[in-house]
Amino acid sequence: MSSSFASQSSPRLQPQEEEEEEEEEEEEIVLSNARAHKQRAQFISEEVRPLPSNSPGFQTFKCSTAAGKFISDHSAMEFEKRKKATLTTMSSPEPDKSPKGDIDIPIVPLLKTLNSHPSYFTTSSCSGRISILSTPTAATTTTVKKKAKGGNWVFITHEPADANSVQNLIFPPNPTADSIQSDNQGNLVFRFEPLIIAVECKDVLSAQKLVSLAISCGFRESGITNVNNKRVIVAIRCSIRLEVPLGDTNNIMVSKEYLNYLVGIANEKMEANRKRSDSFHDVLLKNELFMRPDNTLSYDHDFLNMNQDLGDNDVSVINGGMQDFQLTREIKDDAINGLPGGPELTLPIKPMLITGEPIEKLYLWGHSACTLGTTKNPKSLLVFGGFGGLGRHARRKDTWLLDSVSGQLQLVDFSKTPSARLGHTGSLVGEHMYVIGGRADPGNVLNDVWVLNTANNEWMELQCGGIEFPQSHRHATSVIGSSLYVFGGIQNGNISSSMYRLDTQTLKWEELNVQGVKPSSRHSHTMVAYNSQLFMFGGYDGAKALGDFYSFDTHSHTWKKEKVEGSTPYPRFSHTMFVYKNYIGVMGGCPIKQHYQELSVFQVDKTKSLWKRIKLNSIGEDLFVRSTSSIVGDDLVIVGGGASCYAFGTKFSEPMRINLLPLVSLDEICDTRIEKIPNGGSNLNLEGIYGKKIVPLRWVLRVDKKHAKPAKDMLKKFGWLDLERKVYAQENGVYICFPITKEFVSIYQDKKPGFNEGVDEVNDLNFQETVKVISSARALDLLVAFGATSHADHIVKVRKASSSPLKVMKEVVASLLNHHNLDSTLLEQLPTRWERLGDIVVLPTTSFKDSVWDSLGKELWLSVAESLGAHRLARQGRVSPTGTRDSGLEILVGVNGWVDHRENGIIYSFDATKCMFSWGNLSEKRRMGELDCKDEVIVDLFTGIGYFTLPFLVKANAKMVYACEWNPHAIEALRRNLEANGVSDRCVVLEGDNRVTSPKGVADRVNLGLLPSSEGSWVTAVRALRINGGMMHVHGNVKDTEEQSWTQHVSKSIKEISTLEGYNWEVSVEHVERVKWYAPHIRHLVVDIRCKQIES
Asked: For labelling alongside 487, which of 599, 829, 921, 1090 has CA 20 to 30 A away?
């Protein structure tokens, strides 16, 4: 038994310290498809021989479940013989062939525990060492044999090093001392190397279990290093290393002080190595795998397939320290997935075709991804940060836009971005993506908050108030309303169990005082939002992977540990979690189960909720570790993921897609006819077009929108369209679903579209002529060419007769009036129209005006808000007649009046209770934005929240705008909007009366957007224009019979004012814009006045 273990790479001459803190860019795992070294380093006397550069490469090992379970009797006998011989040698008093000659005392208990198990024995080990290695220089190796020496130790200890001894060796008190032999001239390297143990395992599955346990205890470089038909070898090791060149034997390049410093660091690492080794030993002793070595057959082989039959025993599976997972019994008649007597559901997983940029740009892990639902980028994902990328793998700060339909990938450029990071979270609130925390490098964990405005593509770092959010990475974040909830993670160096909330409207952090059954501290877990609840699963607590499932009520701030049944997901961390309809799904993560990839789903709105496992087909060797999963329509889009495996290096996963629509059919299985197959089992295939084994009650034909018209014409012509059901769209109108008859299903599902079949014909087809198709066979061929596919119609089962919001509101309010014995004639005061500001529904001022309504109080407004689907409800009031024209909006349901409103691609943020907003000015704001103001300076005399200032800056590209405003609430909103739209550097805000604050002689254009009249500031406008004139946009409310006279009055007045100011201008009317009707027979007009210097 060797007491030292050879280095498996040539000594490095560059200073390098490999931190014990897991370098999180590399999620180190063990795969059953491991590629292992064929050659293991060995010791010869005291020489260290590095692996030669021409050593054999890697071999790919693939193991089926059956092969992993049963090894031949001959192999088992050979394993027992080798184990017996090795243990006999260990107990012999004779020294072994290692330099030290015997086993390192500190790890004797650990080796005994490993060797006591019938599936393992150790073949070599080292408890950890501090050494100084002398390696031959280039000059000394040129005259010797072709096979160069690896080097000699000049100092080595398996205990903490004595600084004085090292000092005396490198800097001998007597210069003539023979401490370092002159004939051993070479480069000196100071090293610390941690524990390493080589273990031969009885089979691959036993090896996988041991490696998982080792990784869970911090030995993250552990892996299977050799697999063949004779032996399975595991190396248990970690990365607490240190390697620093000192110079050569004739020229030491470091000082005594620096050498003492290195010894101190090495001793600290030796202590950390000891603690980690002891922790591994403790876990082995507590593990059922080692507590019951006499009963291994029942549980040694359920690592790969956790749905196998377990006979009469329910076994607690402990895989990588997963002690909270109790494997539920699964019976042989396919009663899995919580569907007794039912068939097994499988889902295909398919790679995405990426265009525009190399697919390697998405080779990432630890990144974030959000699904965009805007009309600008429908069905697109926004991917930020992470580790990996094209070329040298590193932390990234790139923002990628991925079209999930076409696969188009493009880099979004910004003038300012967050720093490179991984382990952060990205969450979408409206059109804003919030990025929180992450790790910039091993010593720099972040607590910043950045927001990306997806409307104008600009990043901004937020300055948040409230409590100080800790430095955090590997936490989980979910969104409910305008709040971001953050739980767990590694915060300020410790694993956390705190729940924080960030209000994105007030930008204030708070730590919530939670109730109920509080989850333990964890990181690398997942959390999703469903209605007003958060659901959290899994994670890592520093000792083991977790498999618990919690819910959190955001109203009462109460945690609840969910008691669920069925095929619960095995414990894991660094996985993904998603919400699809009323399903919560869990996928991927560590530890890896390569031979049984699965998707675990949980149905929320069921009286009795069961976890169900769904098999994933064609998954290959993809690693969904620290990947992201995003719901896009009915698809689950998975981006990135991967790991660094000791056996074969770094691996990344390509973007994948899973269609989740078949999940909905799980609810319909009771309404379907399942055909039994001869072997007594059942068969169900829900991939693409449904097979004949299961017959849903109703079907639809799904067609791309561009082919919808001709498809409908043909279905209707040949009687294949089911007229009793309605057509509906899916994925925001990308696909159209036509209800079809059972007769059509029976003849269409056997049609098999070939690759690119009929594409040219479809492209050349005149769709107006499709109705002329006289052959049903020809129609079927065309539908196949369109890419039309048949699916079970799950929508029709839950559809109800649609009611307008007005009708629903009337019914709700009528019930309320009846309950309180109030007159039903009050229903006449219900509004027939209302407006929306962000998520606020604004009722007109004339609604609910009778004082009787006040007796119903909050009950009324909550009922109205719910019936209209509103988060917040308000009633419009009259605009204040004061000069600041304050809003009279009254909030009826909700906390405050701040809203974000997008218009013409511009974000307007304001407090609706303080500032007015008019939808009727939309056309005029668009008209101002369409002007070419590239080199112009503009003065906006009545800016408000930026109604016209923002179009001038964002759309018309004005050089500079002077914004005059005296309402402090409007100014607060204006400053926010300038920042949010990224134009604050081109705007000067002038607070106060414009007749005092407005600049003079600077403007090419002046806007006077005050109603009912801006005449009080016409003199100010003239003075603001340059000496050679410019353009004025004068707003006013005018009777429809006085438009011409008002226009003439404006023109004449401006001419007179300019003359009095000493200008010789030609004043003319260029255009009159009718913006809207302001009141009966009263129009809102804007007259464009051109002022031009008359040459003398």
From this structure: 599
Q: 10 Å Cβ neighbour count for 772?
A: 9
3-class state of residue 195 by DSSP: coil
Q: Which residues contact 464 (CB under 8 A, 6 or more apart)?
A: 449, 502, 507, 508, 509
Is 708 within 8 Å of 787 (Cβ atoms)?
no
The 223-227 sheet, strands edge to edge:
120-126, 196-201, 232-237, 223-227
Q: pTM value?
A: 0.43
- Contact between 1033 and 1069 under an 8 Å Cβ cutoff? The reply is no
d(CA 848, CA 822): 14
Question: For the purposes of burial, counting CB atoms within 10 Å of the CB of 875, is it exposed (0-12), middle (13-18) or buried (19 or more)?
Answer: buried
Q: How many CB atoms lie within 10 A of CB 598?
A: 23
Q: Return phi, psi of residue 954, to 5°.
A: -75, -45
Give me the torsion for CA of 654, 655, 659, 663, rounded to 10°.
80
User: Whole-angstrom Cα distance, residue 970 to residue 45?
Assistant: 83
What is the model's pLDDT at position 1042? 93
Q: In whole angstroms, what is the distance from residue 748 CA to residue 767 CA?
A: 21
CA distance 463 to 461: 7
Of the two residues 68 and 609, the one the predictor is more confident about is 609
Query: Cβ of 1067: how many Cβ atoms within 10 Å?
Result: 22
CA dihedral sign of residues 305, 308, 314, 315: negative
φ/ψ (deg, to 5) at 364: -140, 155
Whole-number pLDDT of residue 206: 84
The order of strands in the sheet holding 835-837 is 835-837, 840-843, 872-875, 890-893
Rounded Cα distance, 444 and 421, in Å: 10
pLDDT greater at residue 814 or residue 769:
814
Cα 878 vs. chain centroid, distance in angstroms?
A: 45
Per-residue pLDDT tens for 687-715?
333 333 344 567 889 998 888 888 988 89
H/E run at residue 246: strand 241-248
Helix (H, G, I), strand (E, B) or coil at 784: helix
For residues 115 and 122, give the distance between their C-alpha atoms in angstroms, rounded to a whole number: 6
Report helix angle 805-819 to 857-867, nearest 10.
160
Indicate if the alpha-carbon torsion angle 540, 542, 544, 549 is positive or negative. negative
**What sections of 383-516 are H helices per DSSP?**
none
Please tell me whether residue 788 adopts helix, strand or coil conformation.
coil
CA distance 784 to 788: 6
Nearest to 394 by CA among 416, 366, 418, 436: 366
Q: Which residues of 722-761 are buried (b: 16+ CB within 10 A; e: fewer)?
A: beebeeeebbeebbbbbbbbeebbeebbeeebeeeebeee
State the chain's mean pLDDT as an integer: 77
**Cβ-defined contacts of 671-676 (< 8 Å, 24+):** 671/696, 671/697, 672/696, 672/697, 674/342, 674/343
Please report, as a single letter, which amino acid is at residue 432.
H
| pLDDT tens by residue, 914-962 | 787 766 688 899 999 999 999 999 999 999 999 999 999 999 999 999 9
For residues 1076 and 921, is the Cβ–Cβ distance under 8 A? yes
DSSP type of residue 468: P
Length of the chain measured in residues? 1096
Number of DSSP helices (H) and strands (E) in the chain, helices first:
22, 66
DSSP 638: E
> What pLDDT is attached to residue 885?
53
CA–CA gap between residue 638 and residue 628 (Å, rounded): 6
Dihedral of the alpha carbons of 1091, 991, 452, 378, in degrees to the nearest 10: -50
H or E element that contains 759: helix 759-764
